[in-house]
Amino acid sequence: MSGRNLFMLFVLLAVVFLASQSLFVIKETQRGVLLRFGEVVEPDLPPGLHVKIPFVNNVRRFDGRVLTMDFPSERFFTQEKKALIVDSFAKYRVSNVAKLYESTNFEESRVAGLLSQRINDGLRDQVAVRTVQEVVSGERDQLMEALTAELTVVAQEQLGVEVIDVRVKQIDLPPDVSESVYRRMNAEREKEARELRSQGQELAEGIRAAADREVTVIQANAYREAEEIRGEGDATATAIYAAAFNQDPEFYSFTRSLKAYQNAFRSSSDIMVLQPDSDFFRYLKDPEGGNK
Q1: Among the ranges 111-115, 128-132, 173-177, 215-219, which has the highest mean pLDDT value?
Q2: What is the DSSP track for 97-132?
Q3: Distance between CA 200 and CA 197 in Å, rounded?
Q4: Which residue has the higher pLDDT, 104 or 282?
Q5: Alpha carbon distance 157, 151 (integer Å)
Q6: How far is C-alpha 221 from the geometric centre of its chain's CA atoms?
Q7: What is the C-alpha separation between 50 and 21, in angstroms, rounded?
Q8: For residue 42, what are the β-bridge partners?
């Protein structure tokens, strides 16, 4: 290879090296700053291809997407001085790249530590002015909204990040408090159960009394209707007997005598003491009953 070719190769390599040191790309998902000897020159580089001076300028990049940060469980005290174990997380993104670089030097661990400290302080303040009931269910949404609004202002001023949301994943009671709370809740539920049973028993007694009263009324009405029907039947039977007697009184008297004989001599051990001229044996002496 000739000296000219070696020179051209050397120039080409130098150009490639200078280009690699001079050109850089900021992705759509990134935020970056351009530094000159450690001093911020351009605080927020837009996405795309950029040029820098080699060995003079330096570029620092940071993830510009919405990031999620989980925090370890912390013990907080409520307004009633009762301890709660709160597990939370936060979502944030960069809002001021220069401020973030100045405060954290784009070190994610440092960002997480500073943000965690501020969120824990905010949670401690919000929980301290509320009761256990309010923290757990009553004002949980209001607590997180107030905390998010407060932290956004502080984080933007001090860290250059925007806190989008702070959420409480889980709230537990310390082991030394859980047992007493469980006993109190159990006692409250037993009291409520006794009240419900008492109300149910009272309602059942009322229903049972109303049913007994209705049964008595129905039986009384049924007995009255039965007696009325029986009386009407007896009256009809009496009328029929009277009509039959009026058609042939002698025959009616004869059949009644036969029935009386049948009832009187039903058993062989029955004994009757009568006078010979008694009317009881009138049809035995004379089939026509003594009526000539």
Answers
A1: 215-219
A2: HHHHHHHHTT-HHHHHHHHHHHHHHHHHHHHHTS-H
A3: 5
A4: 104
A5: 10
A6: 50
A7: 11
A8: 34
Q: What is the mean pLDDT of the chain?
A: 79
Q: What percent of the chain has pLDDT over 70?
A: 81
Pairing of strands 83-94, 74-77: antiparallel
Judging by beta carbons within 10 Å of its beta carbon (0-12, 13-18, 19+), is residue 122 exposed, middle or buried? buried
For residue 253, is pLDDT > 70? yes
Assign 206 to helix, strand or coil.
Answer: helix
- The set of residues, in sequence order, having a beta carbon less than 8 Å from that of 71 and lying 6+ positions away, is 87, 88, 89, 90, 116, 119, 120
Range of weakest confidence among 106-115, 206-215, 246-255: 246-255
Q: How buried is residue 43: exposed, middle or buried, by Cβ count under 10 Å (0-12/13-18/19+)?
A: middle
Is 265 in a helix, a strand, or coil? coil
Contacts of 291 (CB under 8 A, 6+ apart): 250
Q: Which of 177, 171, 169 is nearest to 86 (CA)?
A: 171
Strand segments, DSSP code E, in 125-226 are 161-172
